[in-house]
Amino acid sequence: MSVSAASGRRTGSAARKRNRRLVNVLMLGLTGLATLLALVPLAWILVEVVARGSSALSAEFLTQTFKPTSLGGGGIWHAMVGTAILVGLASLLAVPVGILAAFYVVAHPNSAMGLAVRFGADVLSGLPSIVVGLFIYTVLVIERGYSALAGSLALAILMLPVVVRTTEEMLRLVPQSLREASLGLGAPEWKTTFSVMLPAALTGVVTGLMLAVARVSGETAPLLFTALGSNNLSVALDKPMASLPLTLFKYAVDPNKIRNAQAWAIALVIVVLVLALNVGARLIAMWRSRMMR
Predict the structure, then answer these.
(1) Are 102 and 164 in contact (CB under 8 A)?
(2) Exposure string for 110-147, b = 16+ CB within 10 A, e = fewer
(3) What's the confidence (pLDDT) of residue 5?
(4) Residue 204: what pLDDT?
(5) What pTM does this model have?
(6) What is the 3 state secondary structure string of 204-229?
(7) What is the pLDDT of residues 101-128, one digit of tens each?
(8) What is the DSSP letter of 72?
(9) If we measure between CA atoms, which residue out of 171, 164, 172, 173 comes closest to residue 209?
(10) How far is CA 235 from CA 202, 238, 242, 269, in A?
C-alpha cells in the first residue's frame, strides 16, 4: 500500500510539473505575442515614414526656405529655425518653474500646496493639447495677435507637468542623508537645494527635460491657435512663426503632390528628432545607473 501511494504521489508531482511547464510556455508565448503586436504599429509607422519621406529629403530641403512649387518647392529651414525658437523659449519658461515646483513638492509632500501642485501636474499631463492652445488663444492671441511668444507659452504649459513629475521622482532618489548633512553643517535650505540636491539629481533632471522637449516637438494643435505659422524665416517673437508640425500639416492637406512628398519628408525629420531625444534620454539614464553602482 505504501509503495503504491508513493508511486501515486510521484505521478501526481510529475503531472503538476508538466502542467506548470505548459502554462509557463503558454504565458511566455502570449507575452511575446503581445510585445510583437505592440511593436508592429511602431515598425509600420517607421517603415512607411522612411519609405515615403526619404525620396524628398536632401541637403537643399534642409537648408532652403519656402519657395513656390514652380521653383521646386524650397525647403524647411524656416520651420526648423522656428521649431528651435519655440521649443527653446518654452524650455526657458517651463524648466525653472517645473524644477522649483518639484523641489517644493519634495520638501513639503503632504502640505496643501504640495498636494495641489502634484494634482495639477497630473491633470495637466492628461489635458488635450488643443485645449491648451484654445486657452492661450483666448487669453493672449485675441488681444495681441498670433505670435511665437504665444506658441511658446502653450508649449511651456505642456512641458511643465513632465518636468515637475520627472524632477520630483529624481529628487526622491537622492539619499536624504546628503540633505541632512548639508543642513547639519549650517547650510541654509536654499543653498542645500541648489548646491547638493540638484547636482545629485542633475542627470535625471536632464533626462526629464529631453523627454519634455520630445513631448512638445511634434505638437500641432496648440500652435494652430497661437503661432499660426509662416512661409518666411522669422525670429521675431511678436510675429507668427513657422514650425515643423505646422508646416507638415499645411503641406499634408495641400493638393499639390510636391507638397505632399515634402510633408512625408518633414514627418521623417520629426520622427528622427523625437527618436534621438528619447534614445539620448535612455542613454543618460543608463549612464547614471552605472555611475551609481
Answers:
(1) yes
(2) eeeebeebbeebeebeeeebeebbbbbbeebbeeeebb
(3) 57
(4) 80
(5) 0.87
(6) HHHHHHHHHHHHHHCCCHHHHHCCCC
(7) 999 998 888 899 999 999 999 999 989 9
(8) T
(9) 164
(10) 31, 9, 10, 21
